[in-house]
Amino acid sequence: MAHVRGHEEQTFNEFYTEVKEIEKRDSVLTSKQQIERLLRPGATYFNLNPFEVLQLDSDTPLDLIKKKYRSLSILVHPDKNPDNQERAQQAFEIISKAYKTLENEATRKKCLEVYEEAKDRTDMMIAEKKKKLKKEGKHDGVPEDDPPKYKHAVYVMVMKLFADIERRRQQLEVRDMEERKRKREAEIDEEEQRDLQKEWQKNFEESRQSRVNSWHTFQAGSSTSSSAAAASASAAPVKSKKSKKAKYTSFNPPKIKPETR
Q1: Which parts of the chain fold into alpha helices (H)?
Q2: pLDDT surpassing 70 at residue 232
């Protein structure tokens, strides 16, 4: 068990030494190297932390933040990198965004709160480790008792918290986009319903006179048919009487023929 712990500590120490060497090297990077640092694979994760982008500690005062921003922005400016302007422009925008975040008092305060929370969580993690070791009867301490290792543990936690914040921001953005889409679809549906209602009302009004005229025609036809029927009914008996009278007045008895033998 002790051998395993020793191997883990050695691996951690090697990793941390490598990280510090990279940080030291990055602090004096050339224009090309700075562009590569800001656009390297996985850089999006590190670039969430504006202090990391500008290679500064969280307790750096604003005047030094501004000074570092100017030096870096000159290094990666597209005009200073004519053979790599597109990537230089991307790097320049990353640096500008980081500086704007730290220049603003409110957003800089939020970044510092992330560091404070990272320290609190790291301290809780160390306390849990020590509590576990105590239960196991061990009192050797933890690697984070070493100041450089503690600083690195906080650094890792800071990166994690910035990543969590970005993930939540993206989730809220997606949710907000879906809500706006739903509202817009509802608005479009309402507009279509209103247009259909207007079209129906327009057609109804336009066909009103046609319906009135049809009704008048129908009424007129009904009146004519009724009058004709009445006239026909009143004329029928008169004709019958005349016919009957004519029948009796025009009757002629047959002539008697003389008898022949």
Answers
A1: 2-26, 31-39, 43-46, 50-53, 62-76, 85-103, 105-135, 147-206, 208-249
A2: no
